[in-house]
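During the second year of the project, the team shifted from modelling isolated chains to modelling whole assemblies. The rationale, set out in the original proposal, was that interfaces cannot be judged from single-chain predictions alone. As a representative example for this report, we include one of the complexes processed in the last quarter. Its constituent sequences, exactly as entered into the pipeline, are reproduced here:
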Amino acid sequence: MDRPAPLKGFDGTLEDVVRLCQAGEVDLREIALAEVIRATAESLEGTDLEALTAFLQQAAWLVEQKSLQLVGRPAEEEPREEEEGAGPDVTSELPEYLVFREATSALAALEAWQSRIFTRPPLGSDPSELPLGGVRLEDLALAFRRLLERERTGVRELPPEGVTVAERIAFVLEVLSAHPEGVEFEALFSEDDPKVVLIVTFLALLELIRRRQVRAEQRRPFGPIRLFRLDPEASP
Amino acid sequence: MTAEQEQHTLLAALECLLFASGGPVPVERLAQAIERSVEETHTLVAMLEASYAGRGLMVQYVAGGYQLCTRPEYAEFVGRLVEIQTEPLSRATLETLAIVAYRQPVTRAEIEAIRGARSDVHLHRLLERGLVREVGRKPTPGHPILYGTTELFLRRFGLRDLSDLPPLDGAQTDGTAAYDLLRREP
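Output from the structure prediction step:
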């Protein structure tokens, strides 16, 4: 929250009030909290949801703290609090949240600084990118559609019940591990497999690409798509 | 070969290694490639870095390795040539990332308790961008997934390692004061 909340002799944000209150530098009983909150709320009109969420959390925390100071804690609540005086409860959730807001700002600054630094693309692919060499996801989908549409002849068994993506993941990894030189996309799908197995195998393959455990490559446009097992150590 | 010539060769070789690798290279691997000790390699990289003073390139120590990269002052020029593909993270996603970074290994429920808001979408985005990964399961009922940050996270935020994260004491009055920018100026 960047907009100042008008308060006599104070030109900070609601977040600052929370911080000062935490530090014991401000007595909430002497602040017209409703005024501050109303002014802040007005200044927030039309801003984004994140700022509003932060505002609600801070306002709720302040109101709770002030009511506790005015009325006192209910008797059944931990009597040891009284030995420490009726200061603000620094163990509440909000301050920790505020600490992370600071950390978030710091990370944003780091990200902004580092984004101005360029390196050559490292050998191998950027780990944030999917391991697709010359293939787009659309190409994979197209190849799979062709496979589904291919002429299917002969007698087939009924689909086994409950084939799972996890099972097909294990299957794909096993096949690819046995062939370090790579396997053609079509080779993963047996003509005898029931349709549901083909579909679940394709889902398994997509999942493995997303997990960066399998790399798909197409050396030339419309050429065969080859699949490779990626070294699990290579991905972070 | 005189000692001076030899040093010149090693510095040139290190420059080649860093250029060819692109990303950060652990000092052990550099040492292996130039057949020198790790200590000597650190010294040689420092000399190489000093030789870049006043140039467009610099050597940065990030994610546990050295990398050859452009100086941030010239980002505008590079940006006109190279398309910058990574869009910055949203504030809420960054906040989720901050909690993972400082509290790792951490579960989604723990993140949500701190943020006071659902965070599954943000966690998902961080997983997709390779900044966060699953690091195990918590031995509590339900065995929730534990999350931690990746090497790419260190690289994207220019951190040497996790101990290089800005201190988390909540005493700052503004976010940018949380870390010492000057330390990073060339």
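The longest helix of chain B spans residues 3-21. The first strand of chain B starts at residue 57 and ends at 62.
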